[in-house]
Amino acid sequence: MMFNRYRRGLFIASFLAAPVILYVVYVIAPYLQAFYISLTDWRGVTATPNFIGLENFERLFGDSAFWLAVTHNGALLVLLPLFTIVIALFFAFLLNVGGAQGTTGIRGSKFYRVVFFFPQVLAVAVVAVLFQQVFRPDGSGMLNGPLMALGFDAIGFLSDRDVAFWSVLGVMVWQAVGFYVVLFSAGLASIPRDMFEAAQIDGASRISLFFRITLPLLWDTVQVAWVYLGILALDVFAIVWVMTLQQGGPDRATTVMAAEIYRSAFGHFRFGYASALGVVMFFFTVGFAILSLRLSRRERIEY
């Protein structure tokens, strides 16, 4: 018996060895290397970086650009999951339970799922370039063109400090909603229709169906969606760097931590300082995930 158990453990270990080694080499090792580089003044050109301790972190916490980036990431951390989940839940509920009978989806729901999911097929850089054209401040812009034709002034979606951040947020929500519509639709499909039919017979409205049946039974999926979207909000880079003026402008009105990391490393060749930014961002991300999972934990509902 012991020999068979040993052979089984050896068999499992042989399959796990390769992915574990790859994970250690390409994920864990770079993290550890970044922690070390954050304690140096390495500029990417010297073979032996000079150890300076916590100086990068002291400079970091006194940097106004860093705090501005943290503020923007913090706003995205709240607004991106909130808007995306609310919109995705609405459309998923409509597609699956919003039909004439109140327990089936609307006609053509499969086609609409494909339409909603389409932005996920596009690369982030493609989406950024696409919305650069949508937000053009002249008559050829998809949004400003009709406004100017009606006699209104053009809106500086990417050039106005008060509007640029909301433009970035809108693009991120637009791209993310489709995936979560499909995710929530899959969760709704697993809920027995008998529950909706029984509640409807008892006189429950569609609003009651959503808050008393749909949302409680989808809570685990919503929790996962919130964590993923929060990590996306902290890790956002390509949309900001490609779409906005001055890669995070105007005047850093849309800058985020990932953009400051790239700017410090490849713009100013301060790899030690950039690694310190990355370390702080790492702890922000891990802390957010742990806090979100703990605060949103609730007793699982069986059905």
Automatic annotation (TrEMBL):
<keyword id="KW-0813">Transport</keyword>
<comment type="similarity">
    <text>Belongs to the binding-protein-dependent transport system permease family.</text>
</comment>
<feature type="transmembrane region" description="Helical">
    <location>
        <begin position="209"/>
        <end position="242"/>
    </location>
</feature>
<feature type="transmembrane region" description="Helical">
    <location>
        <begin position="111"/>
        <end position="135"/>
    </location>
</feature>
<keyword id="KW-0812">Transmembrane</keyword>
<keyword id="KW-1003">Cell membrane</keyword>
<dbReference type="GO" id="GO:0055085">
    <property type="term" value="P:transmembrane transport"/>
</dbReference>
<dbReference type="InterPro" id="IPR035906">
    <property type="entry name" value="MetI-like_sf"/>
</dbReference>
<dbReference type="InterPro" id="IPR051393">
    <property type="entry name" value="ABC_transporter_permease"/>
</dbReference>
<feature type="transmembrane region" description="Helical">
    <location>
        <begin position="12"/>
        <end position="32"/>
    </location>
</feature>
<dbReference type="Pfam" id="PF00528">
    <property type="entry name" value="BPD_transp_1"/>
</dbReference>
<feature type="transmembrane region" description="Helical">
    <location>
        <begin position="271"/>
        <end position="293"/>
    </location>
</feature>
<dbReference type="GO" id="GO:0005886">
    <property type="term" value="C:plasma membrane"/>
</dbReference>
<keyword id="KW-0472">Membrane</keyword>
<feature type="domain" description="ABC transmembrane type-1">
    <location>
        <begin position="70"/>
        <end position="292"/>
    </location>
</feature>
<dbReference type="InterPro" id="IPR000515">
    <property type="entry name" value="MetI-like"/>
</dbReference>
<protein>
    <submittedName>
        <fullName>N-acetylglucosamine transport system permease protein</fullName>
    </submittedName>
</protein>
<keyword id="KW-1133">Transmembrane helix</keyword>
<feature type="transmembrane region" description="Helical">
    <location>
        <begin position="163"/>
        <end position="188"/>
    </location>
</feature>
<feature type="transmembrane region" description="Helical">
    <location>
        <begin position="75"/>
        <end position="99"/>
    </location>
</feature>
